[in-house]
Amino acid sequence: MTWVMWRRRRAAAEAPDPTVEARLQDQARALETSRSQMEDLLHGMVEGVLAIGPRGEILVINPAAREILGIPPGRTPAAAADVVRQPELKALLDTTLATGGPAAGDVTLYAPAERRLRVHATSCQAPDGRGALLVLHDITDLQRLEQIRREFVANVSHELKTPLTAIRGAVETLLDGALGDPRHNRSFVEAIAEESARLGRLVDDLLTLAQVESKPIDRSKRPIAVGEFLTRELARQQALAATCGVTLTAEAVEPALTVSADPHQLTQAVGNLLENAIKYNRPQGRVMVRAAADGPACRIVVEDTGMGIPAADLPRIFERFYRVDKARSRETGGTGLGLSIIKHVAEAHGGSVSVESRPGHGSCFTLRLPLA
Fold it and tell me: Is the overall model pTM greater than 0.85, yes or no?
């Protein structure tokens, strides 16, 4: 065999196999696609995910975990100890790293913001040993809603119990002999009638609130001329205003204003605003109503010259059963649900309600609804 032939055979043997090279390229592309898909999955998760190596080093951390733990986007801590400082969270991580078994529990973080987390820790295979995978579920909003539900049930129970106790006391007194006392029996019957009416108002408001929260309103919407609507509402409230010694006036209502709304719900919202402005006003006070276009919305303003609302109460004024003056609210027959109904009606229509007030200078409520 000549030297030239030997060189040719050796070159042919050392040349890469096109089939093998193509297979390697396909595998590389598949690995890159899998890695890209995994990154997209981690970035799209609302749960925080941390993959931690056997020596406590951070292998993977997704944006949700960064946000929960307060890690800036441009910084990636090298060790889990730099971010896992909460003792309960650290205990879950240490348990999984030590035993390889799963661990779970609820943890409260106080920095960068107070959050309630449900944490699941499981074992995972790291490049140089057994690591841990932490999944952080933010349940702060769920617990807040659960707390609101419990408070609502407690408030409803209390509000129902108060008139029922009064009715029961009056009935027992009548049965014990007051029924035959012509000087007092009528007053007990009147008390029963008054508390029964209060129960009826409370039940009606609870049903209204439930309907507003659950009923889709798109099918019941129709164009409503704001000027004509406010004229009818003011006329409907004139008797109450005269009883309370309050003057109702429509100061400025732009003509041709039209909103798309559920007529029944709009009547409830504006009616509640007017009733509150009248009932919590002062003798010889005034209630002024204005309506004007505000960009794509209609702004309905109800302003009164009443006692006003303290600044500390303003953030909670639209909560269910929240009362600034509990004694006066019950005296006027209020259920504590009127402003909450207004808020839900406004939001159901894609609008909003706000208030400005100073003690001793009255209040100004603004209802914004989209123009038709």
Answer: no
